[in-house]
Amino acid sequence: MAVAELTDSINGHWRDRARALQYRIRDRFRIAVDRHRRWSEESDYSVTLRRWVLRLRALLENPSSSVSSSTSLSRYSKFYRKRVDKDVDLIDDSVIARLLQAVAVPLIGNACHVFMHGLNHIQIYGAEKLHQALLQRPKSTPLITVSNHVASVDDPLVIASLLPPNAMLDARNLRWTLCATDRCFKTPMLSAFFRCVKVLPVSRGEGIYQKGMDMAISKLNNGGWVHIFPEGSRSRDGGKSIGSPKRGVGRLVMDADSIPVVIPFVHTGMHDVMPIGSSIPKIGKRVYTR
């Protein structure tokens, strides 16, 4: 009897933790706004505080109303969706840009594939799911991949290691990714290089409704593939833990014209290939990707 009670107690504990985690994920990706104006993009108000403000406003506008709090909340709050045109950034869609991408992306991608599979030891689980989504999804269906971020070369090394070499010969099929302007776009030469390898600029601190995010959604609206690191920065403990996800992934999913295919994966060992502070990737290391 004591064993059964202990088992029930343990199960209840883990159910409570799973429910709490579910609520945290739901609240992080929810963007509640007022009917007449959006909440500030940089606001740090919690969802609970927003809920009470909306309830108070409803009471002040209609004190005699006997509408329940849940009904008033649904009346005065809703999800905000910002539509993005398919041609938000014509520079990346120019003939010259496409020609440069057609040369640079396959060349660098296959070099990274050889580096990871030939000079390091990488073990991959479930790569066929990414291959199927990349090569067999309908043309108009966008693809989003998300992963943890450990080293500055997670992209392109990990991404290239997951794909067969022949899939990287066509730059149009490969991913777009995002990088902070203070890292990848500091000089005109760096900017030109990273645009040639399908990297979009985002500015730290400008929120999820900035131009870089609009550009990423534009790629999705054209049936493209966008890879994003939801943590927003590299892990500081060598990948032992994953930081809290930012809201950018939620916006990519919510604001795309078509519901995207979302494939998450996690990798370990990249902190050995490219430790923080190192400028040259190491060889002979072991990496696992799931």
UniProtKB/TrEMBL annotation:
It comes from Dioscorea alata (Purple yam). Keywords: Acyltransferase, Transferase. The keyword Transferase applies. This is 1-acylglycerophosphocholine O-acyltransferase protein. The keyword Transferase applies. Its EC number is 2.3.1.23.
